[in-house]
Specification:
Layout (H helix, E strand, L loop, with lengths): L1 H30 L3 E6 L7 H20 L1 E6 L4 H9 L5 E5 H9 L12 E11 L2 E4 L15 E3 L6 H12 L8 E3 L3 H9 L5 E3 L7 H7 L6 E3 L4 H10 L5 E5 L11 E13 L4 H13 L1 H7 L21 H9 L15
Parallel strand pairs: 1-2, 1-3, 6-7, 6-8
Antiparallel strand pairs: 3-11, 4-11, 5-8, 5-9, 10-11
Helix pairs in contact: 2-9, 5-8, 6-7, 9-11
Length: 343
């Protein structure tokens, strides 16, 4: 009798223990909620959007199950809006032009007296190549000065394209009024050229740029990409905050483009808010470099996203998570990239 009673007590105890463990597991799972992040890109006709979507997909695929991290990519007007969304905590990460990073973090240019001190960086991405495209019959010298007087799409209002275009024009001694400005996105600019409503457009992105390919592939369309002389590049860098360098667009990058184009470029980088969790950013950084072929398959410019290029030309300090990752990989971090308070 006593033995049967003892058995029942033991069984009940085991059941209670299992229930307790189950509840503990449920509580633990509830505590580990999904971490949802947002990365801002730009309009769909350039390079920011496909690369941004590619990064978001890579992170979500690799980190959702084990670490409950999900990342969503959104479109935007580009670097200008992306800085504002980072400051307003509307997004967590953003692809940005080096020009905007330099101006925002240092409080110069359009951010004069209003520095964004909480801007942090993760890695350099790829060159943002200037494509000043105009109709062939409007060519005078073949260089960027030929946009003067044209009906020219500077870029969507508030976009990085607009700002980089105006900055370059400033370096070349031109003002906004020196072109008959239109403010269209990339595919909007291409369509307006095809409809002969404008005579040229600023389409800055990593080649091949989808909107440029679309334009050059149009039957009967005779357009060219203008070049930048060495003297023009020197003036732009000297007179403005534009962090420019020479970039040669290879022949046959676009339909019917049989000769190389001596253009210029600035670096793009992956920016992030300083208050995003350190361990999360460390995981994102590691995942990015542990899967080098993923973004290369998304877009040709993905091939530039390597550890060899990671710290090249970054305009603001690293995020503590990225900093810790690079330190563990044996990198010697430049003083200006060390996060405030880091050892």
């Amino acid at each position: 009798m006593y033995s049967r009673y003892l058995s029942k007590v033991l069984i009940l105890a085991v059941i209670c223990a299992l229930v307790a463990v189950s509840f503990a597991g449920i509580a633990s799972a509830q505590k580990k909620k999904t971490i949802s992040l947002v990365i801002a890109t730009a309009t769909t006709g350039g390079t920011y959007y496909p690369i941004g979507v590619g990064m978001a997909s890579l992170w979500s695929i690799r980190l959702a199950k084990a670490h409950k991290i999900m990342v969503q990519a959104i479109t935007s007007a580009g670097s200008g809006e992306n800085v504002n969304m980072l400051k307003g905590k509307e997004v967590d990460l953003a692809i940005l032009q080096g020009l905007f990073g330099k101006m925002a973090s240092n409080g110069i240019g359009i951010y004069k007296g209003k520095p964004y001190k909480e801007l942090r960086t993760i890695t350099m991405l790829w060159p943002n190549v200037e494509h000043f495209v105009i109709f062939q019959d409007k060519v005078k010298t073949g260089n960027a000065s030929d946009i003067r007087g044209l009906r020219f799409s500077i870029g969507r209002a508030g976009s990085g394209t607009e700002r980089s275009g105006l900055t370059i024009m400033e370096g070349l001694g031109m003002k906004r009024e020196d072109v008959k400005g239109e403010y269209l996105d990339y595919f909007g600019s291409a369509k307006a050229m095809k409809d002969k409503r404008i005579e040229g457009a600023n389409l800055v992105a990593g080649p091949p740029v989808a909107a440029v390919t679309d334009l050059f592939a149009t039957p009967g369309m005779k357009a060219v990409i203008l070049e930048f002389t060495d003297e023009q590049l020197e003036k732009i860098n000297k007179k403005t905050a534009y962090p420019g360098f020479r970039y040669v667009i290879p022949a046959n990058t676009y339909p019917g483009q049989t000769k190389q184009v001596r253009s210029i470029a600035q670096p793009n980088f992956l920016g992030v808010r300083a208050d995003v969790d350190k361990e999360v950013i460390k995981l994102l950084t590691k995942t990015l470099f542990d899967n080098p072929d993923y973004l290369r398959a998304v877009h040709k410019m993905g091939g530039f996203i390597t550890l060899d290029n990671a710290l090249s030309g970054l305009p603001a300090p690293l995020h503590p998570g990225a900093y810790e990752y690079y330190k563990e990989r044996g990198f010697e971090i430049p003083t200006d990239l060390i996060p405030p308070g880091a050892s």
